[in-house]
Design brief:
6-stranded mixed sheet; alpha+beta; binds iron/sulfur cluster; Aldehyde Ferredoxin Oxidoreductase,  A, domain 1; 23 helices; 17 strands
Length: about 575
């Protein structure tokens, strides 16, 4: 069945031969996996053989939109960026904001697949059906922001730019892809996959539209949903502070990690809280099609960022015993510019600080020292000196230098900033997530701490919570909706999909697709050799009682953790 709202076209770019071709979108996949995350993983499963080198020519890089992309549906402007991860060896999909997704859809494509590898630095321009390859020798070695600035000055602001920094060029496992300067496909070394193909940047411009049936009825109903649901009181915090609001909620709830996941509170948090952040805020920013605008556009000294998000703030501040919003903003600006994932970079440096504190190895970074922290980020990105030892994250570094018990990762992806001993479900969430430790799969902290709908310090009943949240987020990301539209539900997603595609979707369909997407991610990983034995978390969670805050003294048991996995 041909559904509206899709462009019914996949663009394949053969980097090795510098050739392109198009093919119709596989509509059977679209019906079963909807779009974005689900569609990307289904294509990955189909296209790529198991066991391939994530940094070799057989790993494809997928940019995937969804049926909602390019419509006025709120929070639908995200783009899924997917590939096999060099950090984890699992599938990896990242959701990037800004305007690139909408422009790709307007260029006439549901998906672009980058295959093979080029032998010299190149940037690629996609302008409707014109695809061109350009020498990027002058851009290679430049930071991500420098490259984007140069390209946008040449091509104009009607283009979106996806670019990598030196970390991606140097095939760093914690490298990211930037877009619109301040938006990132952050996790799992996705920047290194782009770097392995020698693609410095991708420019995208589109001049087409998206066709939906009954445009007036569809638009009127979308606007109603926008006003009644998206702009409701529950979502006000998104515009007010964005994810920065989680800082207070996590500190109060005892899940704000500090001192490399030793403690879960920061007595100094009010020195960089939301009120302080607002003093530095120049204005608000948002992705295309967003009605909530979470971005805090900030300037501190020379550093300009859209952020820092909660995760970046926690990873660069309390995790490293640094109390300074100026530092958080500077850290954010530096990691973005170098093209590194702020979560993984912060967690890796915090681990290195603990290594020095314990006298195991001194990487030149110590708790509380801002300048050392900023300096090592450059060395990590360029693989210089001690920084080279940290360039691939905590798994690789700890397997060489020791300290595995407190190297905070699952499957090689560093923990997000939610302390599992204050929210036991998060331990299992990190362990079973399809791309390694991730908070955007089953975010049990919401249920266990913020909503308090289930008790935080127990493993009982958590398997179902994990599963339900995972299924819901899998379809939400496959629709390409932003996770910060917190009040959207199965009924709204089904109604919106029905309106724009012309095919009837039910709430039950949403749940079925979510389950299917979870399963195809798991199947991809299983084919790569992953089993339940790989669903692990570091020993620290079972050995070291948490210090401070409402969860003071909490520690998990291995039996309880295994029971959560069995329930799941
Ligand atoms: S809430 Fe934030 S991340 Fe989500 S779509 Fe809006 S601006 Fe983008």
């Amino acid at each position: 069945m041909i559904m509206s709202a899709y462009q019914n076209k996949v663009l394949r770019i053969d980097c090795t031969k510098q050739e392109t071709r198009t093919e119709p979108l596989n509509m059977e996949f679209a019906e079963k996996y909807v779009g974005s995350k689900g569609l990307a993983i289904r294509y990955m499963y189909e296209d790529m053989k198991p066991g391939i080198d994530p940094l070799g020519p057989e790993n494809n890089l997928y940019l995937t939109t969804g049926p909602m992309t390019g419509t006025p549906i709120p929070c639908s402007g995200k783009l899924s960026v997917a590939a096999k991860s060099p950090a984890t060896g699992t599938m990896n999909d990242c959701s990037i904001g800004g305007h690139a997704g909408i422009r790709l859809k307007f260029a006439g494509y549901d998906m672009v697949v980058f295959e093979g590898q080029m032998d010299k630095p190149t940037y690629i321009v996609i302008e409707d059906d014109k695809i061109s390859f350009h020498d990027a020798a002058d851009l290679w070695g430049k930071t991500s922001h420098e490259a984007e600035k140069a390209l946008i000055e040449e091509y104009g602001t009607e283009f979106s730019c996806l670019s990598i920094g030196p970390a991606g060029e140097n095939l760093n496992n914690i490298s990211c892809i930037n877009s619109d300067y301040y938006r990132q496909a952050g996790r799992g070394g996705i920047g290194a996959v782009m770097g392995s193909k020698k693609i410095k940047a991708i420019l995208i411009k589109g001049t087409q539209g998206v066709k939906v049936p009954n445009i007036k009825e569809t638009t009127d109903r979308i606007l109603e949903i926008f006003h009644e649901n998206c702009l409701s009181e529950d979502n006000e915090f998104v515009f007010d502070e964005g994810t920065y609001a989680f800082l207070e909620a996590c500190n109060d709830g005892g899940i704000l990690p500090a001192h490399n996941f030793s403690a879960a509170t920061d007595v100094n948090w009010d020195k960089y809280n939301g009120a302080v952040m607002k003093k530095y805020r120049l204005g608000k920013r948002g992705c295309g099609s967003c009605g909530l605008g979470c971005g805090n556009f900030m300037k501190v000294g020379d550093a300009i960022v859209e952020g820092p998000e909660y995760e970046t703030t926690a990873a660069s501040g309390p995790q490293c015993d640094i109390v300074s919003i100026e530092h958080n903003v500077r850290f954010n600006q530096v990691v973005d510019d170098l093209g590194m994932d702020s979560i993984s970079a912060g967690v890796t440096v915090a681990w290195a600080m603990e290594m020095a504190e314990k006298g195991i190895h001194d990487f030149g970074v110590h708790f509380g020292n801002e300048e050392e922290m900023i300096a090592i980020l450059y060395d990590m990105a360029y693989r210089r000196g001690e920084g080279a030892e940290l360039a691939d994250g905590v798994k690789v570094a700890s397997e060489k230098w020791g300290g595995t018990d407190f190297a905070m990762h699952s499957k090689g992806l560093e923990f997000p900033q939610y302390e599992p001993r204050g929210s036991f479900g998060m331990a299992a969430s990190y362990a079973v997530s399809d791309r390694g430790a991730c908070h955007m799969r089953s975010y049990t902290a919401n249920e266990e701490v913020f909503e308090a709908s289930c008790p935080p310090y127990t493993h009982e009943g958590k398997g179902q919570v994990l599963y339900d949240l995972g299924e819901f987020n899998a379809i939400k990301f496959s629709c390409c909706l932003c996770d910060l539209w917190g009040t959207v539900d199965y009924a709204i997603m089904a109604e919106l999909l029905t309106l724009i595609t012309g095919k009837e979707w039910t709430e039950e369909d949403m749940s079925t697709v979510g389950r299917r997407v979870l399963n195809i991610g798991r199947a991809f990983n299983q084919r790569e050799g992953f089993t339940r034995e790989h669903d692990t978390v570091p020993e620290r969670l079972f050995k070291d009682p948490l210090k401070g805050g409402p969860a003071d003294g909490q520690v998990m048991t291995k039996e309880g953790f295994q029971d959560m996995l069995s329930q799941y």
